[in-house]
Write a structure and sequence with these properties.
single chain; mainly alpha; 3 helices; 86% helix; structural constituent of ribosome; Ribosomal_bS20; ribosomal protein; Ribosomal_bS20_sf
Length: 87
């Protein structure tokens, strides 16, 4: 356990931040799964709509540095390629 007041406070903050970041990562995974599901359904217009919302979510999470910007780019690229292959 932390010995100083400062270290105890940082430990409390770390727990709180970890919970928040975990929630954000879960949101990211849900957004990616939603696009995959829409693509599997075969409806290109619906998939394109979900893709745009997901790109916004992915970018927002990358901007907060919860995931690396390259990981965000990789997700977006793969989803866009899957959407394009649907045509």
């Amino acid at each position: 356990m932390a010995n100083t007041a400062q270290a105890r406070k940082r430990a409390r903050q770390a727990v709180k931040q970890n919970a928040h970041n975990s929630s954000q990562r879960s949101t990211l995974r849900t957004a990616v799964k939603a696009v995959r599901k829409a693509i599997e359904a075969g409806d290109k217009t619906a998939a394109a709509e979900v893709f745009l919302k997901s790109v916004s979510t992915i970018d927002r999470i990358a901007d907060k540095k919860i995931i690396h910007k390259n990981k965000a780019a990789r997700h977006k690229s793969r989803l866009a390629a899957a959407l394009k292959a649907l045509a």
